[in-house]
Amino acid sequence: MKPLEGIVVLDFSQFLSGPSAALRLADLGARVIKIERPGSGDSCRQLSLHNLMSDGDSLLFHTINRNKESYAANLKDPEDLAKVIKLISHADVIIENFRPGTMDKLGLGYEDVKLMNPKIIYGSVTGYGKTGPWRNKPGQDLLVQSLSGLAYLNGNADQPPVPFALAAADMFTGAHLVQGILACLIRRGRTGVGGLIEVSLLESILDFQFEVLTTHLNDGGQPPVRSSVNNAHAYLGAPYGIYETADGYLALAMGSVIRLSELLNCPALAAYSDPKSWFLQRDEIKRILVEHLLTQPTQGWLDVLEPADYWCADVLTWERLLAHEAFQELDMVQEISRPGSQPIKITRCPIKINGMRPESTKWAPWVGENNAKLEEEFHLVEPTAKGERQV
Amino acid sequence: MTMTDLDKPLQDMLVLDFSQFLSGPSASLRLADMGARVIKVERSGIGDICRTLYISNMELDGDSTLFHSINRNKESLALDLKNPTELDVIKKLIGKADVMIGNFRPGVMERLGLSYEHVKLINPQIIYGEITGYGHNGPWRDKPGQDLLVQSLSGLAYLNGDAEQPPMPFGLAVADMMAGAQLAQGILACLVRRGVTSHGALVQASLLEATLDFQFEVLTTYLNEGKSPVRSSVHNAHAYLGAPYGIYRTKDGYLALAMGSVVELGHLLGCPEMTMYTDSSEWSTKRDEIKRILAAHLLHETTELWLSKLEPADYWCADVLSWDRLLKHEGFQTLQMTQQVTRSNGASLMTTRCPIRIDRAYMTSPKGSPRIGEHNEAILQEIAGM
After folding, report:
1. How far is CA A33 from CA A16, A47, A95, B157, B268, in A?
2. How many CB atoms lie within 10 A of CB B285?
3. Which of A141, A205, A326, B219 could form a disulfide with A148 if both were Cys (CB 3.0 to 4.6 A apart)?
């Protein structure tokens, strides 16, 4: 039995932050019903990377929305809204990521929904919180990264601020939302009380920086200084970084510069005997390493460092990773297909429970794919006094 | 508004955390934030190695600031787990615990007699969370589970930085943070189930799987398209997104531009050259050419001026703030994202709070990180009373 079996989630959210949270809940066994606009549905259906589409929806959409159902409803239409309100009375969790105020205007804000279902766990994602001067700014990943200081930690010192090249804010926010929702489900099990969970892209991306931001808050506000040589972390000393070798690259994590000098046979490094110098003279030390590591292929260096348990690794492309036994052992990839369509390859849940990866072959739904079934199952269309069905 | 301890959702949960550094301790920190009582089980003498892992040589009261930020709001029990008497103490505590967390290399907990198979005999309802670097099988199982190394093996570094640069890692411990977040999710889900069925569980996450999941959107593209990612050679911000996506220099600072129409951007910025790209598929195929035109154009005016043209049109754009500017900004202050935590001896530190709000309240705690074994006496007394 998957841990969240029996939990019903209504997901009103679009794009990545909210839907990635709903995906994890689905992975863990919850039944997730996407509430979508009739016709076009989640805007992510048309947001493609490299124009990759499958069966009318972007591959991106398929990736994020596998293992979910879809209920198409026009929330501005009173009849559709009435059906959604009925669904809400059967739900355990609601997720939404509209700009602040949108759900309230629809009569689906937490205060409204709580009256319909006092035990509901209501998860709300915004870009920047619901108050303050940024509340109406677009809650988009790159923009939040840019406002949060994150881009000044990435890339080399001589570069402009370099953003983290994935939707880190969306992904962390989704994970934090799941944590809050699950914690409130635990509380509900004990007390019977529902809850409102609010997360924002900005707070989540600040949390992601908590180690280094804490340093900044306590070191008199000194700005972070990225390494000018193969930066990998503005606050870590040499040798931390990825270096070019004679035939590829080598990653070196934290470790003794002296030990490295001995293992790599690089006498110039031996001068840095004071560990404090590994941070204070970071770039100077890294420059010596850059020169030295170019002289041998990656495997040559690994052969010396790994037996000494020095923290190092090759730097793999996806092509080399996917061909590697270590990747195959994880069994992280599955094929999923919609009836009548070509299968697509999709990753699985990264968490294992009792030694097993939770699995599902359920595809990402068409818009409104499950309307008829849901209307019947939850009696969303009530017979009238005359025995006729309302439309 | 700050939430009272009694309202915190994980009130009454007891977590025993055997883990070190960041991945496991960041998961237990989140459980502590949400109300759980977290006891760090540390080696006598040295404790969590993170205590001496300094970033930028900064320390406070004998421990690194890193340690303080990750381990606030926890207790410390220092024991020698190889000593049978002290191991018995831990087994008694395990009998009372709801959650246990470890992040040793595979085999270490087995040798101590504290693997899930052992522990569930003591406490069948326990939720046992475990983080490894690369999983329990396969050729990498004994490799060091360190963030940069996992980033390097996972393909992540080939997405970040500009095309002409070597693979560039993400400049923070993203594998650790993601693995911690995944572990916390799995633990909480199993606690939900335990409330219904009384069953315990083993929850496993690894840095590698968490980092692959972090890449799931673009990795899926690769799996189905078969073409290697190509970073932009002009201000790369995402290897799979077309122009204008990126951060650009202006006359006096920087400007971030997210996805949007290149033609509309040309009109709004007064850059006729860009309005020629009317075929939107070219925003991907001619990404770097378009971004070069944009980079040259944006240098002519200040960030503020560009924002004043783009924001009223709701074009997705933003200033690019340093922490210095961010921390002074009302947009940051309204979040009340910082809190002061204080050790029992008075040493105190400013740090961030839990990013999750519940019932419109922040979850904070003034309790600083513990000194090694600070709570031994109190915990041993509690055990004696059990």
Report:
1. 16, 20, 10, 35, 40
2. 14
3. A205
Cβ pair B153:A355 closer than 8 A: no
Within 8 A by CB and 6+ apart from B114, the residues are B18, B81, B90, B94, B102
User: By the CB < 8 Å criterion, does A81 face chain B?
Assistant: no
pTM over 0.90: yes
CA distance B152 to A280: 25
- Of B141, B58, B317, residue with least CA distance to A216: B58
In the block, residue with structure tokens 């329990």: B136
Q: Are A374 and A69 contacting, i.e. CB atoms less than 8 angstroms apart?
A: yes
Amino acid at B11: Q
Predicted-complex ipTM score: 0.97
Longest dimension (CA), chain B: 79
Show the tokens assigned to B217. 């959107």
Per-residue pLDDT of chain B (386 residues; tens, 9 = 90+): 889 998 999 999 999 999 999 999 999 999 999 999 999 999 999 999 999 887 777 889 999 999 999 999 999 999 999 999 999 999 999 999 999 999 988 889 999 999 999 999 999 999 999 999 999 999 999 999 999 999 999 999 999 999 999 999 999 999 999 999 999 999 999 999 999 999 999 999 999 999 999 999 999 999 999 999 999 999 999 999 999 999 999 999 999 999 999 999 999 999 999 999 999 999 999 999 999 999 999 999 999 999 999 999 999 999 999 999 999 999 999 999 999 999 999 999 999 999 999 999 999 999 999 999 999 999 999 998 87
Contacts of A178 in chain B (CB under 8 A): 185, 188
User: Measuring CA to CA, which residue among B302, B316, B178 is closest to residue B245?
Assistant: B316
Look up residue A53 and give its DSSP letter. E
Which is the catalytic residue, given A170, A207, A274, A283?
A170
Question: Which residue segments constitute the domains of chain B, with CATH numbers given?
Answer: 5-214+360-384 (3.40.50.10540)
Which of chain B's residues have a Cβ under 8 Å away from the Cβ of A251? 148-149, 151-152, 157, 169
Tokens read off for B133: 């670097």
Q: Which residues contact A102 (CB under 8 A, 6 or more apart)?
A: A96
Q: What is the distance, to the nearest Å, from the Cα of residue B38 to the centroid of all Cα atoms in its chain?
A: 18
Beta pairing partners, A352? B204
Distance to chain B for A117, nearest Cα, Å: 15
Residues in chain A: 391
How far is A262 from A268, CA to CA, in rounded Å? Answer: 10
> Closest Cα partner for B35 from B370, B363, B367, B380?
B363
Contact between B361 and B33 under an 8 Å Cβ cutoff? The reply is: no
Q: Which residue has the tokens 């459980």?
A: B31
At A81-138, the pLDDT tens digits run 999 999 999 999 999 999 899 999 999 999 999 999 999 999 999 999 999 999 999 9
Distance from C-alpha of A152 to C-alpha of A87, rounded to nearest angstrom = 45
Which conformational region is residue A7 in: left (phi greater than 0), alpha (psi within -120 to 50 degrees), or beta? beta
Match 């269309």 to its residue by tokens: A381
In 10 A of CB B289, how many CB atoms? 13
Chain B interface test: which of A9, A60, A214, A345 (most B C-beta within 10 Å): A214
**Domains contained in chain A, CATH given:** 8-208+331-390 (3.40.50.10540), 241-315 (3.30.1540)
Name every chain A residue with its beta carbon within 8 A of the beta carbon of B57: 276, 279-280
State in Å, rounded, how far the first CA of chain B is from the last one: 36
